[in-house]
Protein 1
Amino acid sequence: MPGINFEQVRNEITMAQVLNLIGFELTSRCGDQLRGACPVHGSKTARSRSFSVSLTDHRYYCHKCHSKGHQIELWAAVNKLSLYNAAIDLCRCVGRDVPWVQRW
């Protein structure tokens, strides 16, 4: 199985793009910090603020289900994929080529 340059995927696909793709519904914002219902465990409360995202750091954390990570990990958690498959799927969804690692 060929490798993926995960760092390049994280550098080229922003957290904002991932949030848009998963249909994240914002309930509050303070600068680059967003809060809303958690797309990982599926918060049902319309005013939920358990899910916190930093657009600058490209990191998220849910204070309820404790899911956390960067944009590929969020895509993987929401779509129940491995990180490898999530990176491939995310690149496909945003129309980018997968940055395969070239082995010598």
Protein 2
Amino acid sequence: MPVQKLVAKKVPRKQAAGRTRRTYAQLFIDKLTKFSGDEQKLVPNHTLRGALNWDEQRYARIKTQLVGEGTVIVGRGHGGTVALVGGRENQTLKVFVSYSHVDEKLKDAVLRHLKPLERINLITEWHDRKLLAGDAWGDKIDRKLEEADIVLLLVSIDFINSKYCYDVELDRALERHAEEKCRVVPIILRGCLWQHTPFSKLQALPRDGRAITSWLDLDEALTTVAEALRTMAEDVLASR
């Protein structure tokens, strides 16, 4: 009786490609997309990790990788939360910057340190140097202030002495803050008697309300400001 030859069945190339194993990062994103839905909402870490059935070490490693790549962003909440960056453009917080033109260079330094928060779609900032030719500047400033989720007050003696900053922008910002329509954050640029102003009751930055220009390392001072604003912005989003 002839011996039958066993011939290995050739798997079509397309079929073999279709069985390509998905990476942990892809599995993480797929599961996060499923949980976040059309609203792309923040998802608790414990919920997502449980659905993936991963241990804490693997989950933390993949999450850190995706955060570093700018694919996901972390939030606070109980036990922490995560969300897809691309899906949160509609949730990006609008930041209005109120400052004196005397402090132009310091304003630019602050905004440079906030750029990483813009790249992950956490915030988008606006200030009056973004006005275009032909804009009705008063109306445009008013509209941007009304739309703001966060108002940054770049405080100096020139800010306090500016009639427009102090009597117009500050007044409306504090009204909206009291109505819980935005958060107002004083950032002390230069030493002055800001403790005797209407915003003195608000938590100021950098820590302890110490003026940025009094720090030996300006970048260190601005980094603490950016980190505090990141934490606050994530808290705002987590509470929505």
